[in-house]
Amino acid sequence: MSQITSINSGGGGGGDILTITGDTGGPVGPTAGNINILGSNASFIGVFGSPGTSTLTIINTNQLVAGITTVDAAFVPVSAIPISVPNNSGAFVEARFLALTQDRTRIRSGYGSILARKPGAGPTSLNVGDTFSYVGPKIAGFFPQARFALSGNDIVLEVSGILATIIDWTVVLNFFYV
């Protein structure tokens, strides 16, 4: 269990942090008044500091989350989620979504994955996959969909709602590269 030990034990704010203890290892004390909390590119953990706010934000850097609303059956990109494939590499992308009508009477979810490859500095190509499985009750006339597409060298998830139906979506993408 992570913990912070403070010199101030009498309630209220203030005081200097003496140690920080993580899930493993032992207590870590400051060097020159500072304790570094570092992420790891290998494990997709990022730690971002905001000087002056006393805030560290720890995030999963290979996961993207977005919300979108559709009003018809046209496919639209979930624009907040482009995934660029580095040169000379391959990428695996998995997506999960939840689609709920604005009146909250119909719900559908799904998941899918895809492999992509970018040889050298050439264009990204989508390879195997782009197959989505859908979860939830089968409701006549209600089948929101998702698919992967390319936009330049970015992999983009696109979603399609139902004609004349407002649908709120939440989308989660996980990805990694080789």
- Would you tell me which CATH topology of the largest domain applies? Immunoglobulin-like
Distance between the termini: 32 Å
Mean pLDDT: 80
Query: Which geometry do the CA atoms define?
Result: extended
Reading off the top of the CATH hierarchy, the class of the largest domain is best stated as Mainly Beta
Report the uncertain regions.
Answer: 5-10
Under the CATH scheme, the architecture of the largest domain is Sandwich
| Main beta-sheet annotation | 5 strands, antiparallel
How many distinct helices? 0
Beta-strand portion reads: over 45%
Give an overview in words.
The chain has 178 residues and is mainly β. The chain has two domains: 3-60, no CATH class; 63-177, Immunoglobulin-like. The chain is 0% helix and 56% strand. It is built from no helices and twelve strands. The strands form four sheets. It has a five-stranded antiparallel sheet, with no helix packed on it. It is extended.
Summarize the structure.
0% of the residues lie in helices and 56% in strands. The chain is an all-beta fold.
